[in-house]
Specification:
mainly alpha; about 70% helix
Length: about 140
């Protein structure tokens, strides 16, 4: 759910994105990349995410799924739009910077569901970098 829209986006980037990306904060970019690696490794290796159980924490994984569905719908909206930078950094269903915030919140909730403080911390690192970069781009507009 996370990677497919990003792969498609790499072929359909908004006009002006490359120029805007050159001005990204190196600190935020480093946090984003570190967060991406940490989240990917932790989600793939945490065995507590392999099984589904009716624990009191079940609501967290359901909410994470709902957020990822909203993330997919955000991408559908983006790909059907004129694909401008404004479209890229738009809000969706009340979530500011939906393309950045929805997956970060979903991963955070997965960490809570799995009781994995490392995954929670990795999602915070990812969020600072990813949402921070998107916020900078939106302010440039």
């Amino acid at each position: 759910m996370l990677f497919i829209p990003n792969i498609i986006w790499s072929k359909k980037q908004p006009a002006g994105y490359e120029e805007s990306a050159k001005r990204e904060s190196k600190v935020l970019l480093a946090l984003e990349r570190a967060g991406e690696v940490l989240v990917s490794v932790l989600v793939l290796t945490d065995r507590r995410l392999d099984r589904f159980s009716f624990l009191p924490r079940l609501g967290y994984i359901i909410l994470a799924l709902v957020l990822m569905i909203l993330y997919e719908l955000y991408w559908i909206k983006y790909f059907r739009s004129s694909r401008t930078l404004g479209d890229m950094y738009s809000d969706y269903c009340g979530f500011p910077l939906a393309g950045a915030s929805l997956p970060v919140f979903a991963v955070f909730l997965l960490g809570v569901y799995a009781c994995n403080v490392f995954l929670i911390a990795a999602s915070v690192i990812l969020g600072i970098g990813h949402i921070g970069i998107h916020l900078m781009h939106k302010r440039e507009l």
